[in-house]
Design goal:
This protein has one domain (4-164). It is built from three helices and no strands. Helix content is 81%, strand content 0%. The mean pLDDT is 83. By secondary structure, the chain is an all-alpha fold. It has helices at residues 4-80, 87-132, 141-166.
Length: 183
């Protein structure tokens, strides 16, 4: 007949095992969900950053196009209304070209700065993604079963020790049983 103390201990060990496995599965699902959220955040930030770069570049190129048209218009107007030649003409044309070049360099420099900022932001997003993700661990059935078995073994040992102290342990499967006595 089964001792009630050992039966309760066995049920308790089994429930502890099941609870531990359930908690491990929940932790695994939480880690998976956290990684999904982190991946969506990364994709959203990358898409937003790329769109911002594209819009900024298009806006700067549009400014450059407008400025080039204005410079061409002024040059054409100046050339058609030209009433003088020589150094004055060359000096004025050099001033137009210098202004156009300075503006072009400024706009292209802004585009390059935005591109560098975009690249840095992508690196930062990747680092942020890495910090938001979790390591996914599968439930450890073997370790959990071993821990539950050791818990039950401890209870069984205490039960047998109490029987020995009380002098009620007279069964042959006792841990003090002399195997050579029957020879």
């Amino acid at each position: 007949m089964c001792n009630p103390t050992l039966a309760i201990s066995a049920l308790s060990a089994g429930m502890q095992y099941q609870q531990s496995i359930t908690q491990q599965k929940i932790a695994q699902q939480q880690a998976i969900r956290q990684n999904e959220v982190a991946a969506k955040n990364l994709a959203y930030k990358q898409k937003t950053s790329a769109l911002k770069l594209k819009q900024s570049t298009e806006q700067n190129l549009k400014k450059l196009e407008i400025a080039e048209k204005e410079v061409r218009r002024k040059k054409a107007t100046y050339i058609t209304n030209k009433t003088f030649t020589g150094n004055t003409y060359d000096s004025l044309m050099a001033s137009y070209y210098r202004s156009e070049g300075d503006y072009r360099n400024t706009v292209l420099g802004n585009i390059e700065k935005n591109r560098v900022a975009f690249t840095d932001a992508q690196d930062a997003y990747s680092t942020q993604y890495d910090s938001q993700t979790s390591y996914i661990m599968s439930p450890d059935y073997l370790y959990t079963a071993g821990a539950s078995a050791l818990s039950f073994a401890g209870d069984y040992y205490d039960y047998k020790a109490n029987q020995n102290r009380a002098g009620t342990n007279n069964k042959y499967y006792d841990y003090d049983y002399d195997w050579h006595a029957d020879d």
